[in-house]
Design a protein that fits this description.
With 70 residues, the protein is of the alpha+beta class. The chain has one domain. It has helices at 32-44, 60-69; strands at 9-13, 16-23, 48-53. A 3-stranded mixed β-sheet has the order 1-2-3, with helices on one face. α1 (32-44) links the parallel β2 and β3 (48-53). The protein starts with 8 loop residues before the first strand and ends with a helix.
Length: 70
């Protein structure tokens, strides 16, 4: 069965795949259940999935803090 996935960010470093999902987008609307189903597919394949809220990275300074956390 075909399922389309569009992660917000995919980072590959030293053989580790990190998927970062940004919640709170005003353009793309998705239910939490839909987001979970999409991200779970990536997690089952071995990716680490992190979700951050859009308000946590709305400025460069806040984005730097988020990257330290992830």
């Amino acid at each position: 069965m075909y399922r389309r996935i569009e992660p917000d960010f995919v980072i590959l470093k030293d053989g580790i795949v990190l998927v970062v999902e940004v919640d709170g987008d005003t353009v793309h609307h998705e239910t939490p259940a839909e987001a979970h189903a999409r991200a779970t597919m990536l997690a089952h394949e071995g990716a680490r999935v992190e979700t951050v809220r859009a308000v946590e990275c709305e400025t460069s300074e806040k984005s730097i803090k988020v990257t330290a956390y992830v």
